Amino acid sequence: MRNWAVAIHGGAGVIGRSMDPSMASVRMNHLEMVIRHASERAEQGQSAVDLVEQAVIELEEIPEFNAGRGAVLTADGKHELEAAIMDGSRAACGGACLLRNIRNPIRLARRVMEQSPHVLLAGEAAESMGMDLDRVENDWFTTSLRKEQWESWAATKREADARGPATVGAVARDQAGNLAAATSTGGRTGKPPGRIGDTPTIGAGTWADQTCAISGTGHGEAFMAAVTGHAVSARMRHLNEPLAEAASVIIHQEMPAGSGGLIAVDGSGRLAMPYNCEGMYRAAADSSGHLEIAIWD
Ligand code: ASP
Predict the structure, then answer these.
(1) Which of 201, 217, 275 has most ligand 1 atoms within 8 Å of CB, for mutation?
(2) Does residue 229 line the site of ligand 1, with CB under 6 A?
(3) C-alpha–C-alpha distance, residues 68 and 72, integer Å
(4) Ligand 1 lined by 200 (C-beta under 6 Å)
(5) What letters, b where the CB count within 10 A reaches 16 and e where it falls short, cover 90-100?
(6) Catalytic amino acids?
(7) Can you spell out the DSSP letters for 205-246?
């Protein structure tokens, strides 16, 4: 059994091998930095829920990813951010969506989990729980890449950029054996205002219990229809499947080809990171010294 294990992702989708190599290597370097930080904290005994929150905060601060600054634009050219976190050790979860001014959506999701009797809060109701958190103007989240992608979406009504959206997420098993998951995103380029995806939807893009922790990325509607995160856990518990098999069946047999991927960890610290699309930015590490950072196979 591994003492601790962590994995992070920076999005899945149409990530062609012919894409701009500088963007790929910038994102890979960021993933390496964040997984190394998470590994150090895991080694020092940080709890799973703090590990995943902290990793996602770091990823939200990196403008090359689709979370926090660098998030994609809605059809009306604004940002509506969403995030969720789940602590598998106590079945506690929180999500926040339709956020326009909270700098780190995952902090607000954590607050919903810890300080409200609810699971998912949207818009002003959510933002009002974070009056003391860092707030920014909506256009602070905009980067030139996202403007370019929005312009191309506006002209074609298609999201076709090989540099992809790049949602972020993290899963962890801490030294005490607890599991947690966190995910944060700006959603999809050109999404209609008010659209809520799988990321803040507990059970779909974000899930953790005492069996496994999951963070998904890809076509949110497909993850919601398959209730992907919960479905992996259910296969493990009811069919006695190991993590890799359960995750692979859901991603490769039950979800449409091209819909995305997930990162997952089980109670023994085993990791799985399947995807059914061209690529998925991902990194993983555990207490045996294993470290991996990849986009493709
Ligand atoms: N799953 C996210 C959504 O549909 C986007 C992504 O992971 O790229 O909002």
Answers:
(1) 217
(2) no
(3) 9
(4) no
(5) eebbbbbbbbb
(6) 167
(7) TEEE-SSEEEEEEE-HHHHHHHTHHHHHHHHHHHH---HHHH
Count of beta carbons in the 10 Å neighbourhood of residue 121: 24
167 lines ligand 1 (CB under 6 A): yes
Amino acid 140: pLDDT:
98
Cα–Cα dist 10/135, whole Å = 23
Distance CA 261, CA 63 (A): 22
Q: In the beta sheet, which residues pair with residue 208?
A: 213
Model pLDDT for residues 199-250, shown as the tens digit of each residue: 999 999 999 999 999 999 999 999 999 999 999 999 999 999 999 999 999 9
| Extents of the domains making up the chain | 25-294
Alpha carbon 235 to its chain centroid, in Å, reads 21
Per DSSP, which regions of the chain are E strands?
5-13, 81-87, 92-99, 120-122, 168-173, 179-185, 206-208, 212-218, 260-266, 271-272, 279-286, 291-294
- Token pair of 74, please? 């809605």
Please tell me the distance from the alpha carbon of residue 9 to that of residue 54, in angstroms, as a whole number: 14
What type of residue sits at position 118? H
Pocket test for ligand 1, best of 72, 219, 227, 275 (most atoms within 8 A of CB): 219
Q: Write down the pLDDT at residue 1.
A: 58
Q: How far apart are CA 58 and CA 280, in angstroms?
A: 19
Whole-number Å distance between alpha carbons of 136 and 240: 46
Within 10 angstroms of residue 47's Cβ, the number of other Cβ atoms is 18
Note the CATH number of domain 25-294.
3.60.20.30
